[in-house]
């Protein structure tokens, strides 16, 4: 049985977690919120406008039906260098310690490039089993990022360092039911590793900040299904990737608290956090205008409302509201066959953020964006193709304005009125890949 003092310690630990735990698995990415779409260099070259309707292992992540009816085994591997930049700027964030009045939070008022640069690998293989049936395997990392804010950043109480890696293993099977209809299904096995930290205010502004770190990992399962309809001049694809409920188990460490808060320095083991990543409903088409030119179009509905809260289990036992909204992305592009060995492509994508004004914090500086892409493929041999792409992602300026409190619900409650801006945010993404047939 918990004593009153033990219960109060858990209350303090809970309020500490609530301060930053809501962003444990989020950050600025290049499709929407914390989803990364750079899973094939071929796709990146046309701004991800034709993947649900295209064929082969390179489209397996988007639609398991893509491998039905292939006549040879094929494999693809890609790597994307993601180079983001931007400024997270204080616009008057205030803090009120117990017994005091609201005062500036202090610290460096501008954090430059808090989202780390990185390389995102991906790959897939598909093997035919007869004329109509094929099996495949895709390995991707759809939710991954790292952010680092300086220790003296104005945003330190809601974001310090955040690390997320998701590894998705997708075994798939597909069949060409008729000459024009292809159907496929897959299982998505995902492993998630997450770590986040943030500063904690002591009761006096003259004291150095404390610190909190939350780490965890876990395995979870979802599924994908889709179909494609083909004729001589058009292909239409429809696919669905399920939402996945992730369960992470790990540790919460609190240190550096002084004075009356010093008793809250501790390590809690076995902390459990549950959250959903969204389902995706994808519809796309590829339309052959001439022997050389193919037009592509694709739209995706993301059910981000599933990410409504992060639910913390024992010994914390709380739900942290997130209140994301479901949104869309829209893309159009083309492939142009310059010669039998060279294909050029380009595209534009518009993606809307699921974060809401009034609920956006420095760990999730997400906004609406445009993605402009160019790329190409070159057949080095009849069995080996190199794909390359360059993307420029332009993020809209937006507010960072989620209000929170450290030690909420206790005598030490410390409200923090976050008031900031995301400005000049952009990303350059360079992708290179290869496809081999054997």
From TrEMBL:
The annotated topology with respect to the bilayer is: Multi-pass membrane protein
Superkingdom of this entry's organism?
Bacteria
**Chief localisation class:** membrane
Q: Which GO terms describe its cellular component?
A: cell outer membrane
Q: Single GO molecular-function term? A: long-chain fatty acid transporting porin activity
Q: Give the record's keywords alphabetically.
A: Cell outer membrane, Membrane, Signal, Transmembrane, Transmembrane beta strand
Q: Which Pfam families match?
A: Toluene_X (PF03349)
Gene3D superfamilies given in the database record: Outer membrane protein transport protein (OMPP1/FadL/TodX)
Secretion signal: which residues? 1-31
Transmembrane among keywords: yes
> Does the keyword Transmembrane belong to this entry?
yes
The record's subcellular location field reads: Cell outer membrane
The record's comment on protein family reads: Belongs to the OmpP1/FadL family.
Q: Which PANTHER family match?
A: OUTER MEMBRANE PROTEIN NMB0088-RELATED
Name assigned to this protein? Aromatic hydrocarbon degradation protein
* Natural source organism: Sphingomonas endophytica
């Amino acid at each position: 049985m918990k004593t009153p003092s033990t219960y109060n310690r858990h209350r303090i630990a809970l309020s500490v977690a609530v301060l930053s735990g809501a962003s444990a698995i989020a950050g600025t990415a290049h499709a929407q919120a914390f989803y990364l779409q750079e899973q094939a260099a071929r796709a990146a070259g046309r701004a991800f406008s034709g993947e649900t309707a295209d064929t082969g292992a390179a489209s397996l992540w988007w639609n398991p039906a893509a491998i039905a009816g292939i006549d040879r085994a094929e494999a693809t591997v890609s790597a994307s260098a993601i180079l983001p930049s931007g400024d997270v700027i204080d616009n008057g964030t205030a803090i009120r310690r117990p017994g005091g009045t609201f005062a500036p939070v202090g610290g460096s008022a501008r954090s430059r490039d808090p989202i780390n640069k990185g390389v995102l690998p991906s790959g897939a293989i598909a093997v035919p089993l007869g004329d109509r049936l094929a099996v495949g395997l895709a390995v991707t990392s759809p939710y991954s990022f790292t952010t680092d804010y300086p220790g003296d950043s104005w945003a330190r109480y809601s974001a310090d360092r955040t690390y997320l890696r998701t590894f998705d293993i997708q075994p798939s099977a597909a069949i060409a039911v008729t000459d024009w209809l292809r159907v496929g299904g897959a299982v998505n096995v995902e492993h998630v590793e997450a770590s986040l930290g943030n500063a904690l205010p002591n009761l006096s502004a003259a004291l150095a900040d404390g610190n909190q770190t939350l780490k965890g990992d876990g395995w979870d399962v979802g599924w994908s299904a889709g179909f494609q309809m083909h004729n001589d001049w058009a292909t239409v694809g429809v696919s669905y990737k399920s939402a996945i409920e992730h369960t992470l188990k790990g540790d919460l460490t609190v240190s550096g608290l002084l004075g009356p808060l010093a008793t809250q320095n501790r390590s809690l083991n076995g902390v459990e956090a549950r959250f959903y990543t969204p389902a995706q409903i994808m519809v796309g088409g590829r339309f052959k205008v001439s022997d050389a030119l193919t037009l592509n179009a694709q739209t995706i509905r993301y059910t981000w409302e599933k990410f409504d809260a992060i639910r913390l289990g024992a010994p914390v036992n709380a739900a942290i509201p997130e209140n994301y909204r479901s949104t869309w992305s829209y893309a159009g592009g083309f492939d142009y066959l310059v010669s039998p060995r060279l294909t050029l492509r380009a595209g534009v994508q518009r993606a809307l953020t699921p974060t809401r004004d009034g609920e956006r914090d420095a760990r999730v500086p997400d906004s609406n964006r445009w993605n402009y892409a160019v790329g190409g493929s070159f057949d080095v041999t009849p069995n080996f193709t190199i794909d390359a792409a360059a993307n420029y992602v332009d993020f809209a300026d937006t507010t960072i304005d989620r209000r929170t409190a450290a030690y909420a619900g206790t005598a030490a409650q410390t409200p923090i009125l976050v008031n900031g801006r995301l400005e000049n945010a952009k990303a350059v993404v360079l992708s290179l890949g290869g496809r081999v047939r054997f």
